[in-house]
Amino acid sequence: MVKIIREKCINCNICKEKCPFGAIENKDNRLEINENCKECMICLKNCPQKAIIQEKIDKIDKKLEDFKGVYIFGELEEDKLHNATYELLTKGGELAEKLEENLGLIIIGNVCDEEKNKLMEYGIDDIYLFNINDKNYDCKTYSNCLKNFVEKNKPNILLFSATSMGRELAPYLASQCETGITADCTKLDIDESNKLLKQTRPTFGGKMLATITMPNHRPQICTVRPGVFEEVRLTEKKAAKYIKENVVFNKNENKEILKKINKVKRDSELENAEIIVAGGMGLGKKEGFDLIKKLANSLNGKIATTRACVEEGWIDSKYQIGQTGINVSPKIYIACGISGAIQHVAGVKNANYIIAINKDKNAPIFEIADYGIIGDLYEVIPRIIEKIGGKE
Ligand SMILES: Cc1cc2nc3c(=O)[nH]c(=O)nc-3n(C[C@H](O)[C@H](O)[C@H](O)COP(=O)(O)OP(=O)(O)OC[C@H]3O[C@@H](n4cnc5c(N)ncnc54)[C@H](O)[C@@H]3O)c2cc1C
Measured in angstroms, how far is the CA atom of residue 306 from the centroid of ligand 1? Predict the structure, then answer.
């Protein structure tokens, strides 16, 4: 860790100018090192006052045999655990049994009583609850919390779900603990000969599977894709021991949460619809969806949209199809005034037939469409409705 010695610093700003990462800021005539610091030591070499030093962080004392237990990071959504956490608890239970070690769960925050009840069906020995002062997820704060846990409890194995949170947090923690990580595992097992965790993941673009072990470092950390392992509840309930940890970490001053955007709500009716009529920016205005609804009603179908229309505020996000929306597999998908961006068509790959209405004959949507109508949707759609006998 790079540190400025206040007593020696004369605020000359040379370090700030030399830093290639913009990691030194002058706040109220006081130079401070921010999170961009890569410890390249350019500042240290250029400081005329020798006012910058590198402090060695205490390393975790690593006697490998002291590391015991299989621990799962419990990812919270409000006060409920993510489904993937339960999948990991099931797999973690199997691994712990083979190793004859404890199964533990680490939660940063708190879970509701309903969830605590459910947790009794996974054979967990210990549940660590970290009560932190700022509940908003912040990688650095969470990782500090977990590093604290690793130092105190020395877990042998630490499993994370490969969700957005897990993908950020697990490698950050692994680097803080100076251990390795295997990302996106699809299979986990224990090597009977040496009791190491066998971490299998696809490699070479999914053409091969690699099995990785970590003989010299602890904890053995990996992330697992959600949905890879089955969630199985045990018939016998077991009450875990709850251990409360009160950790006060300072809020990350370099980060401010401006807005929280809720995850796209899934519309199960849309997911299962046989006919979908989707309207895009080609509608030109919010009211254009009246025409889309009319066509959808005439075909007993459902309406959908693109992200661009959601961002315009024309329609609710639950209707958004695509990479960051819903994946659908209807018999017929009618794309009206939709360009066919890759992120959108990712959600309609499983449609049996795609019909596109677009006034630009070069629109990419025509490349994936089974039938294409080149024309103004405000002329084409009323004629289709008229032909099939429109319904309001
Ligand atoms: C990380 C990321 C994730 C994303 N995820 C998604 C996602 O999940 N879903 C998604 O949809 N998008 C997503 N996007 C956005 C995506 O890239 C496109 O911007 C978006 O899909 C475009 O929407 P659109 O086709 O409605 O608009 P445009 O691209 O503006 O297309 C409008 C089309 O309408 C046609 N048109 C105009 N007027 C008429 C008319 N009168 N009659 C007929 N045709 C007409 C035009 O020729 C044009 O082809 C994502 C983008 C990023 C960066």
Answer: 6
The domain of 12 spans 2-54
Residue from 271, 273, 163, 275 nearest 224 by CA: 163
Nearest atom within ligand 1 for CA of residue 340: 25
Stretch (H or E) spanning 72: strand 70-74
Residues 224 and 128 in one domain: yes
Position 252 confidence tier, pLDDT thresholds 50, 70, 90: low
- Reported pTM: 0.56
Domain of residue 119, CATH code: 3.40.50.620
- Token representation of residue 78: 């409000």
Find the 338 Cα to ligand 1 centroid distance in Å. 5
Q: Whose CA is nearest to atom 39 of ligand 1?
A: 282
Domain count, the chain: 3
Domain membership flag for residue 176: yes
State if residue 288 touches ligand 1 by the CB under 6 angstroms criterion.
Answer: no
Out of 142-146, 226-230, 293-297, 357-361, least confident range: 226-230
The three-state secondary structure class of 252 is coil
State the DSSP string of 355-390: EEEES-TT-THHHH-SEEEES-HHHHHHHHHHHHT-
Asked, for residue 253, whether it belongs to a domain, the answer is no
Take atom 50 of ligand 1 and give the residue whose Cα is closest.
343
Shared domain for 92 and 230, answered yes or no, is: yes
327 lines ligand 1 (CB under 6 A): no
Q: Are residues 189 and 333 in the same domain?
A: no
CB 323 less than 6 A from any atom of ligand 1: yes
> Measured from the CA of 279, which atom of ligand 1 is nearest?
26
CB 376 less than 6 A from any atom of ligand 1: yes
Tell me if 317 is assigned to some domain. Answer: yes
Please, what is the average pLDDT of the chain? 91
Say which DSSP state 262 is in. P
